[in-house]
Write a structure and sequence with these properties.
The protein has ten helices and no strands. The model has no long low-confidence stretch (mean pLDDT 87). It has helices at 2-13, 16-56, 96-100, 115-134, 138-160, 165-179, 187-212, 219-232, 237-258, 270-295. The longest helix is centred in the first third of the chain and has 41 residues, at 16-56. With 296 residues, it is mostly helical. The chain is 69% helix and 0% strand. The radius of gyration is 21 Å and the shape is globular.
Length: 296
């Protein structure tokens, strides 16, 4: 207890120290999130293909496509997708290596997507923001896990229109676990938040399908909103739904008008839910108070 108090006093005396630690830690985590964002959908697709081929009793057409015998979040080591050059530790320093190499592979000069340093930078910035907002505590660490999960879900949904259960469901249960100690909301509010979050979008899904014959929302969106409800309580759901719907509508209309995007091409809703959830996490009390002061 004395040790924790000493650390807290030190951080209070030197407030830039925890921010600097959070920044560096966020950059490292952001580098790992890039791996998850790239590999998890590929792993899931390979698993689905294998299961389907086994069910149909046919040969897996993708069995020999990969040059790697094992492909998961740890193996193989990071490498250039163009020349298979294995990336060394010095070539994998978050943001810095990309800048020094001018966004190219050092071995074959193939371009490296700017998404990698962007995700690392965003992860670091959000890590610092959460750390400053919630200070030095175990709750902060739990909220950082939520934040990193939301970043990962956002990018996977953008690129693959997929919100993996491997991320949404653990976040839901972790939210209930955190609030079993009443750290963000009471357990009762968290349970109702999870149920209402899932039920609201489930109801909208079926209403839209009955009226139009089309699926307007994916099941992953139900689970993501349920997870946010489990973390923040049912009181946060109106703000999250309003923010995500407003931003989604603005972006969707903008894509149709500016880029001529086909209205029938689905636009992932997960990034808007995740963004609204993060905003509610950091500024939720202020937004909820403003909402209820206007409408109640």
């Amino acid at each position: 207890m004395l040790y924790s108090s000493t650390i807290a006093d030190f951080f209070a005396t030197y407030p830039l120290v925890p921010a600097a630690i959070a920044l560096l830690f966020g950059l490292i985590v952001g580098s790992f999130l890039n791996v998850v964002i790239y590999r998890l959908p590929t792993m899931m697709e390979a698993g689905w293909t294998k299961q389907c081929c086994e069910l149909l009793e046919i040969e897996n057409p993708k069995k020999n496509e990969s040059v790697h015998d094992v492909f998961n979040l740890a193996v193989p080591n990071s490498h250039c997708p163009n020349c298979e050059h294995e990336i060394s530790a010095l070539e994998n320093i978050p943001v810095i290596s990309w800048l020094l190499q001018k966004g190219k592979c050092r071995h074959c000069s193939a371009p490296v997507s700017a998404r990698y340093p962007i995700i690392e930078t965003v992860t670091a910035a959000f890590t610092v923001l959460v750390t400053i907002e919630y200070s030095y505590s175990w709750l902060t660490l739990a909220l950082l896990v939520l934040t990193w999960g939301l970043i990962t879900l956002t990018m996977i949904d953008v690129y693959h229109q997929l919100l993996p259960d491997e991320i949404t469901l653990p976040l839901l249960w972790l939210g209930l676990l955190v609030n079993s100690f009443g750290l963000l909301a009471s357990l009762e509010d968290a349970v109702w938040g999870a149920m209402a979050g899932y039920g609201i979008l489930w109801g909208i899904y079926w209403l839209f399908k009955l009226l139009t014959g089309k699926e307007g929302i994916g099941y992953g969106d139900f689970k993501l909103l349920a997870a946010l409800g489990a973390w923040l309580g049912w009181q946060s759901l109106p703000i999250i739904i309003l923010l995500s719907s407003f931003v989604g509508a603005v972006v969707g209309i903008g894509l149709i008008v500016i880029r001529g995007k086909d209205r029938n091409i689905p636009i992932p809703f997960g990034p808007y839910l995740a963004s609204a959830g993060f905003i509610a996490l950091v500024w939720g009390n202020e937004l909820t108070a403003l909402y209820y002061s206007i409408y109640l």
